[in-house]
Amino acid sequence: MSETLENLYSETRQFPPPADLAANANVKAEAYEEAASDRLAFWARQAERLTWAKPWNQVLDWSNPPFAKWFVGGELNIAYNCVDRHVEAGLGDKVAIHWEGEPGDTRAVTYAELLKSVSQAANTLTELGVAAGDRVMIYLPMIPEAAVAMLACARIGATHSVVFGGFSVDALATRIEDAAAKVVITADGGYRRGKPSALKPTVDEAVARTGSIEHVLVVRRTGQDVAWTDKDKWWHETVEQADASHVAQPFDSEHPLFILYTSGTTGKPKGILHTTGGYLTQTSYTHHAVFDLKPETDVYWCTADIGWVTGHSYIVYGPLSNGATQVMYEGTPDTPDRGRFWQIVDKYKVSILYTAPTLIRTMMKWGDDIPAKYDLSSLRVLGSVGEPINPEAWMWYREHVGRERAPIVDTWWQTETGAIMISPLPGVTSAKPGSAMTPLPGISADVVDDQAQSVPDGGGGFLVLREPWPSMLRTIWGDDQRFLDTYWSRFGAGSDSSSSDEWIYFAGDGAKKDEDGSLWLLGRVDDVMLVSGHNISTTEVESALVSHPSVAEAAVVGATDPTTGQAIVAFTIPRGNVDTSGDAGEELIKDLRNHVAKTLGPIAKPRQIMLVPELPKTRSGKIMRRLLRDVAENRSLGDVTTLQDSAVMDLISSGMQSGK
Ligand code: ATP
Ligand code: MG
C-alpha cells in the first residue's frame, strides 16, 4: 500500500439494539466514557472480576516497551478462577459444558465434575514430572478433556500449546520442537464426518521425530486400535484414578499461560505467548460485555475449535471464568445432515451463538429452508469472528438465524490480541452489516496512513493499536526479534525513521473509517491489490461478489498484469441451485464482472472470474489468499501445512488451466 486504501463500498443499513436488551445490558454506553477518562483505572476495575491470591501494586508496567507487564506483583490461579470459585459459591451442580459428540452421544459436565477432573489431571501431570514453566502439547478432538487438559496445565503453571486435531505430523512436530514440550495429551481419535478419525498415529510419528517428549497421555474416545509405546499412558488409567483433591497454587500475573501458533494465513505460523492476569481479565470482561452474558439464564455456544484462539478465549477462559453454561460440539456442521447446528441450538435452547463468516456463508450456500425448519427463538445475541463478514452474509445471519431480532456482534481480534478488541456492544451499538464498528472500552484502535497519521473519516489505511492492552501477546515464543519486527517496527517508536516515542502496534490488516467513524476491516495488508495505481481491498470486491444472488462465497487476489500492474482475479463458489454448465457459466461470469463494476466502480472489475467448487481454507476456516495468488501467478505453492484440505488446491489449479 503506497498511500491509503480506496473506499469503494458504502453501506446505509443500520440496526439499533432491541429495547429490552438495551435496557438490561451488562455494559451500557457510559463504559466508553469511563474508560476514556482513565484507561488504567478502567482495566483495574475489570481485573476485580477475578479472584486474586495477592493484589497487584501496579496496573501496567510499560517501562520497557513493547514488552508489557500487567497487574504487576499480583498473583492468581487461572483454574481456581475458572472452576473452584464457582463451586465454592455453591454452583457445583450447575452445568459448565453440555457436550454433544458427533455420533449423538452426550455428556453434561457440572462445575463440581470439572473441578474433580481438573484436579485429577493436575495430579497426574505432576506425577509425570511436569512442573511450572514446562510446556505441554494438547492434540485432542473437541471433547471435554480438551478443556480439562488446558485448565490442568494452567492449574500447575505449565504452559500449554494446543494444536488443531486436524494438523499433520509436520505441523505437530515443528510445534513440539519450537516449544520443546515435555508431554503430549492426545486421544486415540475423534469423530469427523460420521466416522472415527485417528489422532494417535500422527502423535507417534511426531514424537519419534522430535527429542523432547517424555510422556504421552491418551484419552480413549473412539475405541479404535492404537499402537502403544513405552511413553504412552491411558487417561482413564491415570487421570481418572488419580487423587481428586488438589490445592491450586497462585502464580505471578505474568506467568506464561499458553503458546498458540497463528493460523498461518499470511506465512509461517508464529508462536504467540500469552500470560496470566491480563489475559484472564480481558477475556472475562469482553465475554461479559460483548455477549451480554447472563450466567444464570444464558446458554452460550461458540462453534470454534479449541485449537484456535477463539476456542481458548471464548470456550475455555472467558466463559468458564464467568461461570457460564455452554455447549461444546465435537463434529462437523453437516453430520448427519446440514441442519445439525440448528438442531443443537433448538435442543439446548442456545441463547448466544458465536461462529465464523465461513460457516455463515456455507449455510447460505446450503439454503434458507434448512434453518427455517428449527425453533431458533432462544437466540438473543449472535457473534461473528475470523474474517470480515460480507454485508450480505451479515444480513442472512440476521434474517435467517437471528429472525430479525438478535443483534449481531462482529468481533475483530487476533491470536496476538488474545481477546476481542473491536466490536459492537449488543445493548448499545446500532450495528451496520459488515462493520466491526468501534473499539471496545479501554482499547485504542486507529486507522493510519503510511506516515502513521490518523486518517480522517471516509479514509482507509492500516489498522493499528495505540495503547497496550491487558491480553496483548508478550512476545513470539523464543523470538523477541521477530516480535519486534512483525508488530512494532512499522510505525512509531519501533520504526527506524521515527522520532516519535509512541509505540504503535501494527495489526497487519487494512481498514477504513466510514463517514461516521465506524471501522470496516478490509483484509490483510499483504492482500491489498494495486490496480492501475489504485489500492483496492480484496474484501470489498469479495463482498460485492457475495451480494450477487448467485454467489455463496468468493476469494479475490491481485495477480501480476503487464498493463495494470496487478489485475483482479476472483475465485467464486456459486450457490447450490445455480446452473453453471456451458454457456450458463459464461453468462454468469459476464454478469458477475458487470455486477462488481456497478457496485464498486469500473476500476474494481475483475479481469478474470473462476467458478470453483471450494476455496482453500485454514483449519479455522479462513480463506488462504496467498495460495490462490500462487495459482493465479503460476507459482509453486507456499507453506500449506495449515491448509484444511490439500486436494482443494488441485481442483482449483486444474479449473484455472481450463479457464484460460
Ligand atoms: P497468520 O498471522 O499466521 O497469518 P492469521 O492472522 O490468520 O494467521 P489469526 O490470529 O487466527 O491468524 O487471525 C487473526 C486475523 O483474522 C486478523 O488479523 C484479521 O485479519 C482476521 N479477523 C478476525 N476477526 C475478524 C473480523 N471480525 N473482521 C475482519 N477480520 C477479522
Ligand atoms: Mg495474523
Automatic annotation (TrEMBL):
Keyword line: Acetylation, ATP-binding, Ligase, Magnesium, Metal-binding, Nucleotide-binding
Residues holding Mg(2+): 546, 548, 551
Cofactor names: Mg(2+)
GO molecular function, one term: AMP binding
Name of one Pfam family that matches: AMP-binding
InterPro entries: Ac_CoA_lig, ACAS_N, AMP-bd_C, AMP-bd_C_sf, AMP-binding_CS, AMP-dep_synth/lig_dom, ANL_N_sf
Annotated binding of CoA, by residue: 192-195, 310, 532
Residue ranges occupied by any Acetyl-coenzyme A synthetase N-terminal domain in the UniProt entry: 30-82
Gene Ontology biological process: acetyl-CoA biosynthetic process from acetate
Swiss-Prot/TrEMBL catalytic activity: acetate + ATP + CoA = acetyl-CoA + AMP + diphosphate
GO cellular component, one term: cytosol
Binding site for ATP: 386-388, 410-415, 509, 524
Modified residues (N6-acetyllysine): 622
Posttranslational modification: Acetylated. Deacetylation by the SIR2-homolog deacetylase activates the enzyme.
SUPFAM superfamilies for this protein: Acetyl-CoA synthetase-like (SSF56801)
Domain AMP-binding enzyme C-terminal: 540-622
Annotated AMP-dependent synthetase/ligase domain residues: 90-469
Enzyme Commission identifier(s): 6.2.1.1
HAMAP family cross-referenced by the UniProt entry: Ac_CoA_synth
Family to which the UniProt record says this protein belongs: Belongs to the ATP-dependent AMP-binding enzyme family.
Known function: Catalyzes the conversion of acetate into acetyl-CoA (AcCoA), an essential intermediate at the junction of anabolic and catabolic pathways. AcsA undergoes a two-step reaction. In the first half reaction, AcsA combines acetate with ATP to form acetyl-adenylate (AcAMP) intermediate. In the second half reaction, it can then transfer the acetyl group from AcAMP to the sulfhydryl group of CoA, forming the product AcCoA.
Protein name: Acetyl-coenzyme A synthetase
Source organism per UniProt: Actinoplanes aureus
Gene behind the chain: acs
